[in-house]
Amino acid sequence: MTCDEAQILLHALLDNELDAGHAREVEAHIATCPACTAEFTAQREMKRVLADTKLRYSAPASLRTRIEASIPQARPQPSRRSVLRGFAMGSAVSALAATGVVAVVLRQDDQQRILSEVVSAHLRSLQAGHLIDVVSTDQHTVKPWFNGKLDVAPPVIDLTAQGFTLVGGRLDYVDARAIGAVVYKRRQHIINLFVSQTASTEHRPPKTQTMQGFNCRRWGERGLNFWAVSDIGGDELAEFVDKFETAMKANVEG
Amino acid sequence: MPVSDDFQKAQRFREAALPYLDDVYTLARYLLRDASDAEDAVQECYLRALKHFDSYRGPAMKPWLFAILRNVCNAEYARRAHSHAAIEDTPGAADQTPMWQENEASPETEVLRSRDAGAIRKMIDALAEPFKETFVLREINNLSYREIAEAVGAPVGTVMSRLARARAMLRAAWTAEEEHSK
Ligand SMILES: [Zn+2]
């Protein structure tokens, strides 16, 4: 870990936002780096003083009264309903602002937000020349590489015989967490298979969604969440997922 | 839609959104640095939130309200930029400070610390956007990184780097202040 990374991650450590593995990594860096130790200590002290200081404001009582009055609360009466309508129409919401609100509401949907992060991670992997951390077509090389980098190493399966070539693995970040990405190739097309641990062990059947022109097929199995992302067609991606799951089951049983 | 639905909706909205009034008002104060503008923005925020409550799908109410408040504040920034540039000047904001403390005076307010709180609020006010907003959402409104990302519509990684910048800037201002008062 470089100091630049540590100088950002030490805040996540202070805020208790890191999983155990990353917390250990940051702590290990701080322990051996005087500059980062100094910054960490100073920031911890500042955070302590801030927590002890009244920095919040209280809304004035008159504001609370005004807002409460604007929310309909009497018995249903036709006139009140038109008052509510009046508010809805009368408030100066531009079409643009309304669109903003819709976008925000969509972001609230956790699955959707994570899907968009997964697709962004796929895009990053294609653009930044950071497709693969460990280059190997051998599943016995790729799988151990993940050990120690993630709490649970993703399953790595060679599907070359089934028409999907294993090309390597990569550590990526989705939803503020490290996540394993296993990279496959179909002709000249890249498939990123993102795998993360989940608390739920229930089986979630595969489902394909399209985002920013990419197909993403996601499913849940054996306490893991999977997202396969690629620009190959939806049926080919479904075929990939079928082959992967068949091979997984054969592995587990065999 | 039957009339009673509107009232049920209003009741659900009241229970879900009103408990965060102080949070929303706090963010508005830091973003706008003006008590009466903050009141107007918060009222507008709640009106819009009520209007769009039908499309609200959760999970967290606080980031949703903050996101709406940001839209309202952005409109206010635009209005200020057109009407009177001087509103943004720091002296104007500094003039407000004694008034805030009078308004804030309450039995719970620690008298000894009230001066420190005023000084620290001023330092936070002076932070540049978008760093101030990220800092206030994390340190004062207690949002998780993920919730901040939702409220500001930026990736979590961006939130993390903004927060690190904000804290570094605040620490620098803090150190300068201490040197100055020696
Ligand atoms: Zn370091």
Automatic annotation (TrEMBL), chain A:
Membrane spanning stretches: 83-106
**Highest taxon of source:** Bacteria
Q: Which organism is it from?
A: Bradyrhizobium campsiandrae
Keywords of the record, alphabetical order, are:
Membrane, Transmembrane, Transmembrane helix
Q: State what protein this is by name.
A: Anti-sigma factor
Q: Quote the Pfam families the UniProt record gives.
A: zf-HC2
- Record-annotated Putative zinc-finger domain positions: 3-36
On whether Transmembrane helix is a keyword of this UniProt record, the answer is yes
Q: Could you tell me which InterPro entries the record lists for this protein?
A: Anti_sigma_zinc_sf, Znf_put
UniProtKB/TrEMBL annotation, chain B:
Q: Does the keyword Nucleus apply?
A: no
- One Pfam assignment: Sigma70_r4_2
Family (UniProt): Belongs to the sigma-70 factor family. ECF subfamily.
The protein's organism comes out as Bradyrhizobium campsiandrae
> Which segments constitute the RNA polymerase sigma-70 region domain?
20-80
Per UniProt, the keywords (alphabetical) are: Sigma factor, Transcription, Transcription regulation
InterPro entries per UniProt: RNA_pol_sigma-70-like, RNA_pol_sigma-70_dom, RNA_pol_sigma70_r2, RNA_pol_sigma70_r4_t2, RNA_pol_sigma_r2, RNA_pol_sigma_r3/r4-like, WH-like_DNA-bd_sf
Q: Where is the signal peptide?
A: none
Domain (RNA polymerase sigma factor 70 region 4 type) ranges: 119-170
Protein name per the record: Sigma-70 family RNA polymerase sigma factor
Q: What Gene3D superfamilies does UniProt report for this protein, alphabetically?
A: 1.10.1740.10, Winged helix-like DNA-binding domain superfamily/Winged helix DNA-binding domain
